[in-house]
């Protein structure tokens, strides 16, 4: 039976929503602490991060791992996958959609098989499954 791995992050928030601010920390890895604030989330992107940017990073990473494993199991391991994730947020409505884009360097695979596996990875990556309440779209291509 696989071990359960628990990843931890924390946020300290000061003040009310619109004028307040905070920091979020990647506690398990210790990889960093990032400023957060409403203005970056609800008005304009800026020098602070947002929950949606962190979700986008997690989704792009998880998707890349899932797709790499599926390509390897297909006998066509990737040389490189360049994956982006765009998480759309509308104040008052929440997260309204996610768009993944992947460009792969994969020897010995047809474009059709690449796209088929890319779509399957989108449906089966654990973060996609966790975020399935919103529409997740995908653009995939070989380099």
TrEMBL record:
<dbReference type="InterPro" id="IPR003718">
    <property type="entry name" value="OsmC/Ohr_fam"/>
</dbReference>
<dbReference type="InterPro" id="IPR015946">
    <property type="entry name" value="KH_dom-like_a/b"/>
</dbReference>
<protein>
    <submittedName>
        <fullName>OsmC family peroxiredoxin</fullName>
    </submittedName>
</protein>
<dbReference type="InterPro" id="IPR019904">
    <property type="entry name" value="Peroxiredoxin_OsmC"/>
</dbReference>
<dbReference type="GO" id="GO:0006979">
    <property type="term" value="P:response to oxidative stress"/>
</dbReference>
<dbReference type="InterPro" id="IPR036102">
    <property type="entry name" value="OsmC/Ohrsf"/>
</dbReference>
<dbReference type="GO" id="GO:0004601">
    <property type="term" value="F:peroxidase activity"/>
</dbReference>
<dbReference type="InterPro" id="IPR052707">
    <property type="entry name" value="OsmC_Ohr_Peroxiredoxin"/>
</dbReference>
<dbReference type="Pfam" id="PF02566">
    <property type="entry name" value="OsmC"/>
</dbReference>
């Amino acid at each position: 039976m696989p071990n359960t791995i628990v990843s931890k992050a924390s946020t300290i928030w000061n003040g009310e929503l619109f004028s307040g601010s905070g920091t979020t920390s990647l506690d398990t890895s210790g990889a960093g602490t990032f400023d957060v604030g409403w203005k970056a989330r609800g008005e304009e992107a800026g020098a602070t991060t947002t929950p949606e940017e962190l979700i986008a990073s997690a989704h792009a990473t998880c998707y890349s791992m899932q797709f790499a494993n599926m390509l390897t199991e297909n006998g066509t391991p990737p040389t490189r996958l360049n994956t982006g994730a765009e998480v759309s947020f509308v104040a008052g409505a929440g997260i309204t959609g996610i768009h993944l884009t992947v460009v792969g360097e994969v020897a010995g695979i047809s474009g059709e098989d690449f796209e088929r596996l890319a779509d399957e990875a989108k449906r089966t990556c654990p973060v996609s499954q966790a975020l399935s309440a919103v529409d997740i779209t995908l653009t995939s291509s070989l380099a």
